Every structure is written in structure tokens, then in C-alpha cells.
Amino acid sequence: MKKQYLVAIGLVIVIAAWMLIPRGDDNHNERYASSDIDRTVNAVADDGPSSASSAADFTVRATRSRVDTYTQTVSVRGRTQGFRLVDIRAETAGRVTATPADRGARVQKGDVLCELALDSRETDLQEMLSRQEQARLEYQGGQDLQQRELISRAALAQLKATYDSAIAAVRRAELALERTKIRAPFTGIVETRAVEVGDYMDMGGQCASLFDDDPMLLVGQVPEQEVNKLEIGTRVTGITVTGERLNGELTYLARAANDISRSYHIEVRLEPQQTAIRQGISTEILLDASQIRAHLVPPSSVTLDDAGLLGVKTLNADNEVEFHRVQIVGESTRIDQAGFWVTGLPNEIVLITVGQELVFEGQIVNANFEWSQL
Hints:
By secondary structure, the protein is of the alpha+beta class. It folds into three domains: 94 residues, conserved putative lor/sdh protein from methanococcus maripaludis s2 fold (Beta Barrel); 88 residues, Elongation Factor Tu (Ef-tu), domain 3, CATH 2.40.30; 120 residues, CATH 2.40.50.100. Helices cover 28% and strands 37% of the residues. It is built from four helices and 22 strands. Strands 1, 16, 17, 18, 21 and 22 form a six-stranded mixed beta sheet that branches. A six-stranded antiparallel β-barrel has the order 2-11-14-13-12-15. The chain has a four-stranded antiparallel beta sheet with strand order 3-10-8-5, with no helix packed on it. α3 runs antiparallel to α4. The radius of gyration is 47 Å and the shape is elongated. The chain starts with a helix and ends in a 6-residue tail after the last strand.
């Protein structure tokens, strides 16, 4: 054990001595250190011309853009609605004897929807016709007598009043008989039927409800911030939840706002459609508003500046990069022309479409227009 301790102590002394003895390499290290410094300085000094040369050789994809007319749209959530839905009611009382029109059937103006029992109405008409004929003959006889001055003019006037009263009574009897057949006031679809054969209808009782689907409407509420952008006659596009596209014209714009929502009611008359449109389908209503001058730019060309504001990068006549702040005023969803409509740009620009994130304002670059279409 003692021999092992002596060996360990000896090794420690040898290592300590090796570390403390100078080896004469300071000059060598200083020479290499100064050489590294010189090389670093020379690299920085030579980097200026090479950077400028590489910047000038940098190529971006670009396209020429010219300002165009863009029609702003006002988007409103609405629904489809029929032109009218009317409850058809009886104008006289009676027992229902027939209901010729079924629910869902399309009827023409004048078609019978409900029939009531005639009861004594037909005989009443015959009685009134007989009284009318009697009054007519008495009046004609009175005229002959008055010409021979056998009766006074007052007596003749009384006969004339009796005759006119008989004519009015006949008309009332005819009207009572006519009202036993409840007819459609316009062409439409029988939406509901409220009575069946055998039911008794009072005056004012509902026979059916008639739905007028020609034309169909779109209805919605426009916010007060957007209402001044709209005019009667504005073209309108509607997109239903089923994906169907509808076209029409703004025909009504309320003058008074809703007391709760502070929005204005609108109605759009739709063009005739190939397929029937049902009432109550949720629809996005797009109304053409004011027209402005704007550029259509690809979404990929829009970037942010150091302040976090939206803009695009363009090239001037010297191929120098410029940054323009823009405001997005609309969006194009067409497959062949997808992008954003923006304002804040000159009438004609050279727009950088690819590589705008790799260049900085004031840098001179090359533009490749052949690659502008991706």
C-alpha cells in the first residue's frame, strides 16, 4: 500500500511541473490571433461590393397592374319570401259543401276554393226578380199616365224609387248567391285549407291560405352604416344555404329604421327561376353599392411593414423596391381572378408577386414578368 501512495504522489508532482513550465508558444499564438483579426476585417471590408452586386442580381417575380373599377357590395343575411300569403275568408255564413282545391295545388285566379250551401239564397233571388219586374211595369204605366196628366210628378217619382229599390234588391240577392263560392283572388298555391266538407263557416271564417310565388322576394335588414350606399334598382345577388345563386333587383328600401335593431328593411324582387324557390330559405344577400377605383392583387403579394400595416411592394422605373400601404376594400372569389381589391396605389404599378418578403425598400432588383402567372 505504501508503494502505491508513493507512485500516485509522484504522478501528481510530474503533472503539476508540466503545467508550470513555460513552453514558448505565445509568439506563435499571437501571430495566428493577429492573422485572424486581419482576415476578419478584410472580409467585412470586401463584403460591401459583393453585397451590392448580389442585390442587383436578385430576381423577383412581378406583374403589371392597372387600376380598375370595383363595385363595392353590401352583404346582408336574409331569407326568401313569397310575394304575398293571404288568408281567404268567407263573406257570408253557411255550411261547407265542397272544397275543390287540395293543399299544395296551384290554382288560377277565379278558381273555387270552397263552396257553401245555397239554402234559400236561390229562391230569394227569384223573388227579387219578380218584384223587380212588377216595379218596372208599374213605373212604365205611371209614365203613360203622367204624360196624360192623370197622376202627379210626385207619384211618378215614387214609382221610380220603388223600381230602383227592386233593382238593388236583385243585386243583393245575386251577390249573396255569388258569395257562396269562395274564389281565388289571384293565381297561386293553396298553402293551407282550414275547413272540410260539413263544417259551418261564419262570416269572416277562413277557407284557405293562398301563397303567391310570382315573383319571389329576398328580404333582410341593412345596418344603418350601410343604408346610404344603396339605391332602388340596385342589382342584387343571393346565395342560398343550398348553394343556389339568385339574381334580382332592389325594389323596396325602408325609410324608417327598426326601433330595436336600428336596421332598415329591404325587399329584392327576383328574376323568374327555372326551379321553384321555397319561402324561408336562409340567403346571403349581396347588394351592389358604390363604385371605386382599385387594384386587384393576389393575396400572396400582401405583406406587412415594420409598423404592422398592410401593404404591397412594387418596383419603380429604376427597378427600386417601394412599399405602399393599402386598404382592402373587397375580395374577388373568381377562380381565374382570385385576390383582394385594394386602394392606395398609383394608377399603374409593377407589383412584386413572389419574393417580396426577401427584398427591402430601396433595394434594386431584377423583375421577371414571364413568371408573374403562377
